[in-house]
Amino acid sequence: MTIGGPKVLIVEDEPSQLELLSYNLDVEGYDVYKAETGEEGLLILQEVEIDLVLLDWMLPQTSGLEICRQIKRDKTTRSIPVIMLTARGEEDDKVRGLDTGANDYIVKPYSIKELLARVRAGLRNAKGGLGVNILTYKSLTMDLRRHVVCLGDKVIHLGPLEFKLLRILIEAPARVFSRDQLLERVWSNALEVETRTVDVHIGRLRKQLNAVADADYIRTVRGFGYSLDKVA
Amino acid sequence: MTIGGPKVLIVEDEPSQLELLSYNLDVEGYDVYKAETGEEGLLILQEVEIDLVLLDWMLPQTSGLEICRQIKRDKTTRSIPVIMLTARGEEDDKVRGLDTGANDYIVKPYSIKELLARVRAGLRNAKGGLGVNILTYKSLTMDLRRHVVCLGDKVIHLGPLEFKLLRILIEAPARVFSRDQLLERVWSNALEVETRTVDVHIGRLRKQLNAVADADYIRTVRGFGYSLDKVA
DNA sequence: GGTTTTTGTAACGGTTTTATGACGGCATAG
DNA sequence: CTATGCCGTCATAAAACCGTTACAAAAACC
């Protein structure tokens, strides 16, 4: 086992898969830790300073989903990127369950090349800030790769502009953006757009979210702008 | 290590993060000092004339929060800008706990570009006066980026004018501002405003604060004006 | 104590800002 | 070519905020 490479924890109940992953990551110079159950994985997380977790969706006892939640609940492990491994048919569940805080996901069967790329991106992300594919705020999640937005277990359909708008907001939750800032970032350089148009789109976004949410996710800051900020 | 650049102290327990930060700051020409625990950091602060501190929120022994408090308690280190590094999920705690006196905060995952920008802003601030994002007085905090005011752990909603007013006051705590000074700074150049209007707004501000506070935060100086000054 | 001056505050009307429904234009898909 | 969905603007409604006034309360002065 290489010493000094980034520490990756694999949680996967199927031994053959586990071996395959382990081997490939080892070859790439990662320091690999293995677990066959979620519980085992959590134990390792407490003992070792893991840099990234590969977590199978389906696990014998506690599900990967629940394990992910626990990882994200604990302050000491929260910032560790988690990549979920999920079988093709589980995609729908995944959409619903992405509010666990996972940073990315890979659908089986995956190519090793893709997996390694995502692992690299995940590590880069933890350190730098790029490569995020899932954005979350409270129970709101945006899957950038699939262009899907969920609130809790409900899928929300947004138009392109609304999607962009929400993305800006969710990338810096609670921060207030002025209408002009939003115009600049969402509408790019379209100069011939009224400032008030932002209001309308915020309104549309709000309506869609509130149709599902238990509380308003968008805060209006009078005289300044808007922010993604769930109050209750 | 470059000699002569501004001295930045990084306190971060995760070695990979520490290295990453260190490297990037070094490249930018800063004189970097590293610590893996708060205690270590405080020691360095006493020995070296640090210009800015990057402080991780979560630290093994004493928390970053507590370290920040200690930095701000000591007269010799009080004026050094502190930027807190905090994970996404800790945001709520942060809003509540920002009465530590930190000057700014960055939410992980952050882009290096953003971090460097904030470091520059922090240094500029220390020397000039711009770039502060968090203002505090006793247990009252204003988060300018988020446009949120907290007293203890309660969020207080203020209108635009009240917000501006409080900002002027909190930027120079205990200093007394005359009604005319406040008119000039809060109402800018609006000439057609009665002097007594200030009273009313101070009153409104007071009411909102006192609804939550244990003591009056605004002191009336008869014949002169007002100041932010908690008596009891 | 009584008077004067200054400050506190409730209340009101007016203004500004934001929310929202409706409409026509435009593009794209069928 | 028609239907559908999305977008930008406008008009109007609703809400939040602001400045003033009037009177009550407090402090200062004699």
Mind sketching the topology for me?
2 copies of one chain form a homodimer.
Chain A: E1 7-11, H1 15-27, E2 31-35, H2 38-47, E3 52-56, H3 64-73, E4 82-87, H4 91-97, E5 104-108, H5 112-127, E6 134-137, E7 140-143, E8 148-151, E9 154-156, H6 160-171, E10 177-178, H7 179-186, H8 196-210, E11 218-221, E12 225-228
Helix pairs in contact in A: 6-8
Chain B binds a DNA duplex (30 and 30 nucleotides) through residues 159-162, 192-194, 196-197, 199-204, 206-207, 220, 222-223.
Number of strands of chain A: 12
Q: Roughly how much helix do the residues of chain A carry, as a percent range? A: 25-40%
Whole-number mean pLDDT of chain A: 88
CATH topology of the largest domain in chain A: Rossmann fold
CATH class descriptor name of the largest domain in chain A: Alpha Beta
- Could you say how many structural domains of chain A there are in total? 2
| Oligomer type | homodimer
Q: Helices and strands of chain A: which structural class?
A: alpha/beta
Shape of chain A: elongated
Low-confidence residue ranges of chain A: none
> Biggest sheet of chain A: strands, sense, closure?
5 strands, parallel
The end-to-end distance of chain A, rounded to whole angstroms, is: 49 Å
Order of helices and strands of chain A: EHEHEHEHEHEEEEHEHHEE
Total DSSP helices of chain A:
8
Strand order of the largest sheet of chain A: 2-1-3-4-5
Strand content of chain A is: 15-25%
Question: Rg of chain A to the nearest angstrom?
Answer: 19 Å
CATH architecture of the largest domain in chain A, by name, is 3-Layer(aba) Sandwich
In CATH terms, the superfamily of the largest domain in chain A is Response regulator
